[in-house]
Design brief:
alpha/beta; five-stranded parallel sheet; Rossmann fold; 15 strands
């Protein structure tokens, strides 16, 4: 059985759901050790140890790991991965930042966005905005390194028998050319976009940054995360960390409400694994209605207030 190392994503208090999704993929390949990098990962280690499929949790605690700086984490991850056959990470912003660096330090190629396992060295991943699925095989001489397309895997459950937790000291030299400056969070108390079960997204049809506030209001009533189309981001309605689609975030919520989004193929790539898709658009010929489970054709400026009133009632 292969030895698999999975890079965990967390905020120092709780694990990101992306880790539990990536773990389902990792567990299909072999015995999984979960790597926690942080300043003090004691709190999150207990949660990590309770996930089904984890054989052990490795804590790599040091002050330099207190913030998620890829240039700092990557050399340590590469050193740790030397004793494993497979190195994986969620295909999140964090995973996509760290893993290519670690792969380069290990001198091996990386597979991006693994969506299906064929065998221990053969995987399927999407290309061309998800319109083509390609099969990739890793040579026997190479370690398997890849990011997991978290929208393609369901999160694992909790285990009744927690895995052992170990503290690991690594000797990797850390770079001095990259330092942590600060964090500016734009999401407030809303759920993380990539792991949320409900998402409300707005497009260019809203017409202005001020009108986009209607999306935030609806999302807050539903306890949902907020997303946006590329057109809305390019128009300056919201920052680009809210963008959903090929060049944004790939998500798989149970409920996705698209407001004023036409449904360009690049956007649809980001939501193809969503559960129920609700589309609100005044153009009945908009492409998004082809994928929608529920479609409302009409003026969003009339429909959204009606939804608000219904939710309040």
């Amino acid at each position: 059985m292969a030895k698999v190392l999975l890079l965990a994503e967390h905020d120092g208090k709780t694990l990101n759901t992306a880790t539990a999704r990536a773990l389902r993929c990792a567990a299909e390949l072999g015995d999984v050790a979960l790597a926690l990098f942080g300043g003090n990962t004691e709190a999150v280690a207990d949660e990590a140890a309770s996930l089904n499929g984890v054989s052990r949790v490795l804590r790599i605690d040091r002050p330099e790991n207190g913030e998620p700086v890829a240039a700092v984490i990557a050399p340590q991850l590469a050193e740790l991965a030397a004793g494993y056959d497979v190195l994986l990470a969620p295909s999140s912003t964090y995973g996509k930042d760290v893993l290519p660096r670690a792969a380069a330090l290990l001198g091996v190629p990386q597979i991006s966005d693994i969506m299906e396992i064929v065998d221990s060295r053969t995987f399927r991943r999407p290309i061309y905005a998800g319109n083509v699925i390609t099969t990739v095989r890793v040579p026997e001489s190479c370690k398997v390194v890849g990011t997991v397309r978290i929208a393609s895997f369901a999160a694992v459950d909790r285990s009744h028998a927690p895995a052992p937790v170990e503290s690991i000291a690594l000797q990797a030299s850390l770079p001095s050319h990259t330092t942590w400056i600060g964090l500016e969070a734009s999401g407030g108390d809303r759920p993380d976009l990539q792991s949320a079960t409900r998402v409300v997204a707005g497009g260019r049809g809203l017409g202005s940054k001020e009108s986009f506030d209607m999306i935030f209001q609806l999302a807050d009533k539903l306890g949902a995360a907020v997303g946006a189309s590329r057109a809305a981001v390019d128009a300056g309605y919201v920052p680009n960390d809210m963008q959903v689609g090929q060049t944004g975030k790939i998500i798989a919520p149970d409920l996705y409400i698209a407001v004023g989004i036409s449904g360009a193929i690049q956007h649809m790539t980001g939501i193809k694994d969503a559960g129920v898709i609700v589309a609100i658009n005044r153009d009945g010929e908009a492409p998004i209605f082809e994928a929608a489970d529920i479609g409302l054709v009409g003026d969003l400026f009339q429909i959204l207030p009606e939804l608000d009133r219904a939710l309040e009632g």
